[in-house]
Each structure stands twice: as structure tokens, then as C-alpha cells.
Amino acid sequence: MTQYLLAVHGDDSVYDTPIEEAQPMYDATAKFNERIMADGTWVFGGGLKRINTATVVDGTGADVVVTDGPYLETKEYLGGFWVIEAPDLDAALKIAAEGSKACGGKVEVRPFEDGE
After folding, report:
1. Cα–Cα distance, 83 to 109 (Å, whole number)
2. CA–CA distances in Å: residue 70 to residues 45, 50, 74, 98, 106
3. What is the average per-residue pLDDT within 79-104?
4. Across 48-54, average pLDDT
């Protein structure tokens, strides 16, 4: 089994969605999470707070530099993620499609390095 990162991308305005509009997405995502936990696919996952809560740490130089905000200025940000285990990319893509439908966002699928 290979582990995959399923990264949910979207713009920051999703955080402004009124709860009555967002609740069906929350419910569908919770149901999706419960299903992949039950079938053993789930490794870890979670939603992230707004992008303005990000802090970037750069320890590559002589001094550590800490700055507020996202590392990149983009239109879309990482809003949440799952780490799953799947037998192959096709299975991971199928699970990602279900997650995308549940959470209402685009999902990027990337395998982890296997250490070889």
C-alpha cells in the first residue's frame, strides 16, 4: 500500500460561506471521513484555519527568519488534507474524487516518497 496526500485547494472566500450553506458540505465531508476510517484507508487528515493564520519559518540562513502569512501569494490555498493508504494511483484518484465531491473543493493527489 502506498500513502497519498490528498490536498484540498480553494480560495480564502470559502471561510466566509454562511453556515447554512456550508453545513451540507461539512456533513458530507464527515460522512466521507467516517467511511474511509471504517475501511482502513484513512491515515490522518484535517481542515486548516484561514491563510492569514500561517507563519513561515526560514531556517536556511545564518539567522532564523519568521514572517506572518503564507509562503506564496496565490489565488488558491491549501484548506485541508487527508493522508490515505491505497493500493495504487487509480484507487487514490477514486477516493480523491469522492473527497472532492464531499468537501466541494479541488483535490490534488500526490504519493509520498517510499524511502527507496
Report:
1. 10
2. 20, 10, 9, 28, 19
3. 96
4. 90
